Amino acid sequence: MGLDIRLPIGGMFAVFGVLLGGYGISTDDSPMYLEHSLGININLWWGSALLLFGMAMLFLALRKKRHEAGS
């Protein structure tokens, strides 16, 4: 039995999501967003999307591991 690929991928996306979302939160009142992205905090939104995807992958990997342990 090998390593489920969803585990490292989920961890990587979750870490990147936290980093990007944290950067988006820390630069929330920056005038950069008004000039370049129509007032939308792109870093915060994509950080949230990456974190959500990473958490879904981790959930699926852990669910499979728990299902195999019960069988």
Entry keywords:
71 residues; mainly alpha
Strand content: under 5%
SSE class: mainly alpha
Radius of gyration: 16 Å
The total count of strands amounts to: 0
Oligomer: single chain
Name the average pLDDT: 89
What is the N-to-C succession of helices and strands?
HHH
Number of structural units classed as domains: 1
Euclidean distance between termini CA atoms: 14 Å
Largest sheet: none
What do these coordinates show?
This protein is mainly α. The protein has one domain. It is 77% helix and 0% strand. The protein has helices at residues 6-26, 32-36, 42-70. The model has no long low-confidence stretch (mean pLDDT 89).
